[in-house]
Amino acid sequence: MNEILIASDHAGFSLKEKIKPYLQKLKAGIKDMGTYSKERCDYPQFAGKLAELISRGKYKRGILICKTGIGNSIIANRFSGVRAALCYNVSAARLSRQHNDSNILVLGAAFVNEKSARRIIRAWLNTEFMSGRHSRRLSQIKNIEREIRCNKK
């Protein structure tokens, strides 16, 4: 298993710290990109740094945690090639991998406790992309991303 990036804001810090040992138990290498305390901070800086590394191909997968997961999802999905999926349950995590080949799992600490986060993470890490008709859809997403980049120039 490749190294997994993980980051949170202050609202997701406690959950992040609880799941890091679980990731290590799964033999996943982890790179913690912050925050490193419960001190109030702004989630875009952490989500942006993690998503940029995924977008540039430096890492294959990452996990983001904030209070609801919504803000992190919005930021992460601004980056080309990032498919960040906000998942509050195991079924959504599996489907995000099978159908969308998600490369960032986003958790909302206000809605996911440690036990459910572990189950969600395990499902997300162990589920493969199904390909087939879903590959066609990912190609369409890539084409839209290319069009957007071209229109910005």
Arithmetic mean pLDDT: 94
Order of helices and strands: EHEHEHEHEHH
Low-confidence stretches: none
**Termini separation:** 38 Å
What is the rounded Rg?
A: 15 Å
Find the count of extended strands (DSSP E, 2+ residues): 5
CATH C-level label: Alpha Beta
Using the alpha-carbon principal axes, give the shape.
globular
- Content-based structural category: alpha/beta
Placed side by side, the strands forming the largest sheet appear as 2-1-3-5-4
| Total count of domains | 1
Share of β-strand residues = 5-15%
> What is the CATH topology descriptor?
Ribose 5-phosphate Isomerase B, Chain: A
CATH superfamily: Sugar-phosphate isomerase, RpiB/LacA/LacB
Proportion in helices: 40-55%
Question: Helix tally?
Answer: 6
Secondary-structure map:
Blueprint: E1 4-8, H1 13-25, E2 30-32, H2 43-55, E3 61-66, H3 70-76, E4 84-86, H4 90-98, E5 104-108, H5 114-126, H6 133-152
Helix pairs in contact: 2-3, 4-5
